[in-house]
């Protein structure tokens, strides 16, 4: 059983937030600061918010398996109950799905996916809620569908289908058959769906179309879109996309290009389609240990602890609290600087390690993604269509992490960021080429951050989204960072822990 509750530490409990939830499959898109994207799952990772998969060769398994997870189930509540005692059941009536091919003839044939794409072939679900005072939703579906047809001319691989290459790797067959598009109607006003400042797959999942009977990602188009109209005149755009097509930055560039097309504007950032610039070297040249792939031994037997009820809680850190964490990290004079991501990541990593009562000699790992676009030599071209994020890691003993001051943990995070160079990233791609193993989440915390993604800039002609973000809850190894509040200066930290561990973690979050 999984339950979710909101801990309001420093932020106003009912303050509207621009982000909602999270990805499906393993985690959004994977992303940790200083990367402005999100991660969300990986090949063996499994579900919302991850993007990484377990170690081992590529296996195309059932969508609900640990390898390719289409979403994490929250506790099933038959209805949403509000503080006023009213109970409301969201009902969404979906129309017939249609295929939306590119408006013009596009290139056909097999389309290469890099090893950075192979590592995060998971499903990511996001929604964007729009409402305009001047414009109703009558033509929203048709306008967005027509714009999709046009923008797919530029992003034609999204109109193809995933398949397996002769090398046993994922590849896109550019068939041009199109994305799946569905129009739907909800039985309520947009505001009635309740507090969507935290992931709620039971409710928000109704705003995203699932391909009936799809058993694995090969049976799912790279892009599925659903436009749901609300009785108030607002509407939601729900997207189901495969992370192997792009990371958070690339996804936002695509959605923003789609919006520009809907408004009759040229693309601000045309996509750079050729992913062969990130081909592995031949022969592979592995120059680093790549601990991100290492399977850590569970000396603390925490797998048994996770048989207990899993509770999901969201903790809000306002700007004042974030500043306190950074000051705490620098108070001993060891560090010359500390960013918000570095401080908060180290703080959460230490607290989770303590809450899980890991043995002192237990190795613990922190995983997060860094935007590699500017770090490659030469840098990736503007508008690069694909995954440009690279996983980095910090590993140490639990006792060392907890006994030493916060500055030590922050230093580990900083070292992990510095480690990401052109040679490191190319070595990581070659490592996958040679071993076909994927990052392991054993005794690991994966932080995926959506707090720097520009969800709020999308405009299809109805203005910027009222709310937007991912849909699903993160996996048990994942902590999700979401921006909070109108000014996006606060951060919501969402994660799931066994009930007893969550009680301890909640105490440790009080600054």
TrEMBL record:
Residues 22-50 are annotated as: Disordered. InterPro entries: CAT-like_dom_sf (IPR023213), Plant_Fungal_Acyltransferase (IPR050317). The keyword Transferase applies. It holds the Pfam family Transferase. One of its GO terms (molecular function) is acyltransferase activity, transferring groups other than amino-acyl groups. Keywords: Acyltransferase, Transferase. Belongs to the plant acyltransferase family. This is Omega-hydroxypalmitate O-feruloyl transferase. It comes from Salix udensis.
